Amino acid sequence: MTATALNDLTLQQPALLLRHLNHIAGQWVPAASGARMDVLNPADQTVITQVPDSDAADARAAADAAQAAFAGWRATPARTRGQIVRRWHDLILQHQADLGRLISTEQGKPLAEGQGEVAYAASYVDWFASEASRITGDVIEPAVAGRRMLAVKEPVGVVAVITPWNFPAAMIARKIAPALAAGCTVVAKPAEDTPLTSLALVALAEAAGLPAGVLNIVCASRARTPAVVDVWLDDARVRKISFTGSTPVGQHLARRSADTLKKLSLELGGNAPFIVFDDADLDAAVTGLMASKFRNGGQTCVCPNRVYVQRGVMAAFAQRLSARVAALQVGPATEAASQIGPMINDRAVDKILRHIDDAVSRGATVLTGGQRLRTELGPHYIAPTVLADVSPQAVLCGEETFGPVVPLFAFDTEAEALALANDTPFGLAAYFYSQNPARIHRVSSALETGIVGINEGAVASEAAPFGGVKASGYGREGSIHGLDDYLHIKYLCQGGLN
């Protein structure tokens, strides 16, 4: 794909959606330094287009704009804020096909999944458009006569949003929508791999009537991202950071934000177990695993990373699963028939192959896949893979593979399965299949994760709280709890009312 390929996309309104500049204080502007960076095709790493490569000056300008806009946006009636956010939602859905194609082009997600992600992103915007007018407080019964006591909720202030590459629409929408609904203003930095979708969403927010300075976005390469984020970490006016990404980066943000005591929402690494008990519906379990594991080619934080199958049903489960996995269609993300697109970059491919090679070196058997697909498609395609007889010492037991690889581990007892599932510092998501009501109660209570899928592989919903425990972070996105991290509680005590 050449640098002009993006302009050749069949979009209904390319002038609206194809943005190549930062958005600060209501203006589309280049980086102050004039620097630009390439946005690469994930299939072959050729250049799609360029966007600004921002630095500290741009981050400061964005924070200045957000702070200047805060008082006015905070004072805007909640119903009005909700109406603007609702118009944003409507515009996202109006441009669903174009946004889906944009996601597939820069991220490598199959076209159907790209359009599905747009609908998923819009669902959060719709949800928080309604929640804007549902922010309530408490009237507290005073213990002393002549007093009135109230607890009211107010927006925290300027929010810094830092998003990953794997869901460039959904991640930014589910962070920005509650911030806007709560009355906060935003500075955002998308992942360097996938800035175009985020820029398009900001353009639609602007078209929806969002006032200048309320939502600002700057792009930056990996090399310059620390300089951008450090400005926001050091700026006391930035009162909250919402980040999705790796646990080491989340820990760094927590340490660096301590001096200004910012609120943090951290959705960090995962190492999700998927448990199949011998009383499970095996066909349903295979279908659930396919849905949860191979979404976005396995490049999601809630993908099952370790699949534990009770020994008595292992052979039957492995046979059914391998047949389904071998039938997956691998191909260019923008082709309708493709079910698995390219991995995001060289680092991702190297990690996946390292995990496969390590498991095989420790005695694992490749039931299907197991290699890079060396075709004219490009170097970043991995054959969907199932590994049997995987050693508990395999590297992939402790690291997220973030690719289309299913390792199978046998277990004998429920207690053993739970011990294996919980034997990780992470605690984002877990899944299990069983038809025993008592076991369902026991296992769901014992799993040390923030999300549990019970006989279900697709668990995400705008109406449900999304987040983890342990090294997977804290804070929740979505649901009626999703506004909490964007609000603080103020206690009002009025005397002299006798």
Which key terms come to mind for this protein?
single chain; 498 residues; alpha/beta; Aldehyde Dehydrogenase, Chain A, domain 1; Aldehyde Dehydrogenase, Chain A, domain 2; 2 domains; six-stranded mixed beta sheet; 14 helices; 22 strands; globular; NAD-dependent succinate-semialdehyde dehydrogenase
What would a concise description of this structure say?
By secondary structure, the protein is an alpha/beta fold. Helix content is 36%, strand content 21%.
Strand content: 15-25%
Strand line-up of the largest beta sheet: 14-15-16-13-12-18-19
CATH superfamily of the largest domain: Aldehyde Dehydrogenase, Chain A, domain 1
Total number of beta strands: 22
Q: Architecture of the largest domain, according to CATH?
A: 3-Layer(aba) Sandwich
Protein name: NAD-dependent succinate-semialdehyde dehydrogenase
GO molecular function, one term: succinate-semialdehyde dehydrogenase (NAD+) activity
Domain Aldehyde dehydrogenase: 28-491
Family: Belongs to the aldehyde dehydrogenase family.
